[in-house]
TrEMBL record:
This is Xanthine dehydrogenase YagT iron-sulfur-binding subunit. PROSITE patterns: 2FE2S_FER_1 (PS00197), 2FE2S_FER_2 (PS51085). Keywords: 2Fe-2S, Iron, Iron-sulfur, Metal-binding, Oxidoreductase. Pfam families: Fer2, Fer2_2. It comes from the Bacteria. It comes from Sphingomonas palmae. Residues 1-75 form the 2Fe-2S ferredoxin-type domain. One of its GO terms (molecular function) is metal ion binding.
Length: 175
């Protein structure tokens, strides 16, 4: 079975040592996903696999046979931007832009986690059934994605604009 990347089937690489990141960047020329630390520590290479975030530098492409991978290029709907991409522009959620694709993919998956009721370390009222997306909640959930330029305030503002007042039904539709 091939991997489905941004809606298109892609054959599994013949070399089982090829990372998902290298498949995306070097073989498919999808340069939006960035190679930062290549050790899984910075989040620049974050992509979605079946709606969940992973760091693609630590993932072997063969592991994702039959799975659905979405990169930053696959989030937009036709020529229109994903709402989070537009919010990043509006809130200046980037400076150099290197971490931005990973930040956006991570935030989209974060919205799905909240919709499924997955708490973070700072989530209060675990038995209330709802998770309030506060600045602290966003910062905790996005802590695996680093920005060397210091655009974290704009990133948090963009995420809160898109997902901050949404309920779980809206968040699920945003995935």
């Amino acid at each position: 079975m091939p991997i489905t990347i941004n809606g298109s089937p892609v054959p599994i690489p013949s070399d089982p040592r090829v990372s998902l990141l290298d498949l995306l960047r070097e073989e498919l020329h999808l340069s939006g996903t960035k190679k930062g630390c290549n050790q899984g520590a910075c989040g620049a290479c974050t992509v979605l696999v079946d709606g969940e975030r992973i760091v693609s530098c630590l993932a072997l492409a063969v592991q994702y046979d039959g799975r659905k991978v979405t990169t930053i290029e696959g989030l937009a709907d036709g020529n229109g931007l994903h709402p989070l991409q537009a919010a990043f522009i509006e809130h200046d959620g980037f400076q150099c832009g290197y971490c931005t694709p990973g930040q956006i993919c991570s935030a989209v998956a974060m919205a799905g986690e909240i919709a499924r009721g997955m708490p973070s370390h700072v989530t209060g009222e675990l038995d209330s059934g709802t998770i309030t997306l506060t600045r602290d909640e966003v910062r905790e959930r996005m802590s695996g994605n680093l920005c060397r330029c210091g655009a974290h305030n704009g990133i948090v503002d963009a995420i809160l604009e898109v997902y901050g007042t949404a309920d779980a039904r809206v968040l699920e539709a945003a995935e």
